[in-house]
Amino acid sequence: MPTILDVARKANVSAMTVSRVINGSGPVNEETRRRVEQAMKELDYYPNSNARSLVKKETRLLSLLITDITNPFYTTLARGAEDAAKRLGYRLIFCNSDEDPAKEKEYIEMLLSTQVDGVLFAPSGDDSLKNLRLLRKQGIPFVLIDREVPNLECDKVLGDSMLGAHKLMEHLIENGHRRIACITGPKHISTARDRLQGYLATLKLHDLEIDPSMIIETEYTLGSHQEVMQKLLELQTLPTAIFAANNFVALGAIKELRKHGWKVPEDISVVCFDDLDLLQDLDPFLTVAKQPSYDFGVFGVQMLVERILGTATSNFRTIVLPPEIIIRRSSRNINAALE
Amino acid sequence: MPTILDVARKANVSAMTVSRVINGSGPVNEETRRRVEQAMKELDYYPNSNARSLVKKETRLLSLLITDITNPFYTTLARGAEDAAKRLGYRLIFCNSDEDPAKEKEYIEMLLSTQVDGVLFAPSGDDSLKNLRLLRKQGIPFVLIDREVPNLECDKVLGDSMLGAHKLMEHLIENGHRRIACITGPKHISTARDRLQGYLATLKLHDLEIDPSMIIETEYTLGSHQEVMQKLLELQTLPTAIFAANNFVALGAIKELRKHGWKVPEDISVVCFDDLDLLQDLDPFLTVAKQPSYDFGVFGVQMLVERILGTATSNFRTIVLPPEIIIRRSSRNINAALE
DNA sequence: GTGAAAGCGCTAACAA
DNA sequence: TTGTTAGCGCTTTCAC
């Protein structure tokens, strides 16, 4: 591949002049500029960004670290991040931690070597603290998205898990449900804690009994939630509704319910956090707390770039993007006659 | 951030020795190695891969260029590519062309500057040829995935669109369908052409009439396919089944059918290419030709890396991964009584 | 087993 | 408006 020197020779100028043409970083005679541009085109020259990064000490590379690339919440977020990064002149490296802090650490080390300018970070859980400290120690700016980590001051773009859970619960209670099970995510993930918190708080608010056997913890990932549902279905008194902590958990629950011959919503109502856009097209079915996932990505990248450029206030900021409750067929009024 | 020289000073050796420790690229005394490793740890040293790339003329970076990051076919493919890349010691940059050759070109130019070692390339269409030629001119190895481009010899990992379409059509015909509509993708995408071809060939095979008004072209993306369906629903004689060229097209079709009060499969059957894993959990519904998307990514990266390392045969290779037909509820026997 | 010198492709800083 | 020099952090080459 041709270098800046090849271009310089061909245009009969110095490398410095070519550099100025490429970057618009100094005065260049119109006629000279034309010659240089001509030479670049003829040689199919593309500047080597490694070399540039080495001297400029910036790569214009950001990283988006998410925990599950198959979850539509994160892919839509990724779209938002990508669009914003492009608009601001940054490239984006995607990393997928698979909800695993060890894999997350490997990626962080890779990113440190890559010299990314900043990281948009969806932590796999509270254990991510070590990894985040590593970034901070090296002076790499980061913005937390979707989940937060205790004992860490930093920029954040979060949803409102408490509020969303509360609204979903209010909806169920309004519709006559009194025995509501909660299938929550891992305790080491902040959104799981907050959603459980919202569940509990709303029950208390209505003086409803809190039955620990109705609260079951599972993974956030798609896959078999068999044992979890087994536990639930073995209860003496069965719930009339399920509040699931995210979209994949809800899918897993419904799948298991089906296996056991339960119909949603006839036999049991189901509501959850996060929408599934695809599904909504096929059959508007699940009642959900939909989060503006695309905006998570956009705001995240904007905050990150402001932090990198130093145009942000020195204080850390938190942006909260509230969910929207969408009521569909999966939740029904328990007193209404079945159609 | 500390450099190799900082480590060298701390360990009382030269930079060269540190380099040898990092890369295992030469003999180092056990005791010296320990001192160097100690120093690296104490300084939180991570080698600058830009500097390394500059001299080694390899970045160990691959790019995965796909056309739609929200399509589960591609996200699963991405997982496969990511896992394989990691295993082989490569980093992966995701790019999303959005089915747009212009955006695709911008990304290619960016990748040229980034000095990626190779590109896993799902072309936006036949117009990608220019972009691919650019890569070839610069000597960057690439592997085409999912779609091919006419007049270009290169490594490829493809599905078998003809076969999948044929099998889906056979399934419909076996179940008594005679008037089958085809909602196909853009003509400039190879898979759309092949699927249409499979549709036509199977009709001919069974001496069934080919009615051009039953063949409608639309986009591969999720979104409203209103006008397309409008055309279909205005036909004199209506089809009893629809063959949709991909998952998103099928979703769009079903959505529109619903709007017009048509039920699937009671009023009309629908089959399509590519599965939707999420959906399958909620309600095993769509009859599909499922492609092994994860393997597309794995094989693609493997081929690419072999090409980069020069361990591949000099001849270009094509891997074909056939689809699997999964029959579900969206297609029914037209003569069977409704339940 | 270890180090010194040179250079990868580019740009900052200064000089002309 | 243009060019020269030096150096970013690393590895290759060759010498010891």
From TrEMBL, chains A, B:
Q: Which InterPro entries match?
A: HTH_LacI (IPR000843), Lambda_DNA-bd_dom_sf (IPR010982), Peripla_BP/Lac1_sug-bd_dom (IPR001761), Peripla_BP_I (IPR028082)
This chain's protein is named LacI family transcriptional regulator
HTH lacI-type domain: from which residue to which, for each copy? 2-56
UniProt entry tagged with the keyword Transcription: yes
Q: What's a Pfam family this protein contains?
A: Peripla_BP_1
Q: What organism is this sequence from?
A: Fodinisporobacter ferrooxydans
Query: Do the record's keywords include Iron-sulfur?
Result: no
PANTHER family in alphabetical order: HTH-TYPE TRANSCRIPTIONAL REPRESSOR PURR-RELATED (PTHR30146:SF148), LACI-RELATED TRANSCRIPTIONAL REPRESSOR (PTHR30146)
Keywords, ordered alphabetically? DNA-binding, Repressor, Transcription, Transcription regulation
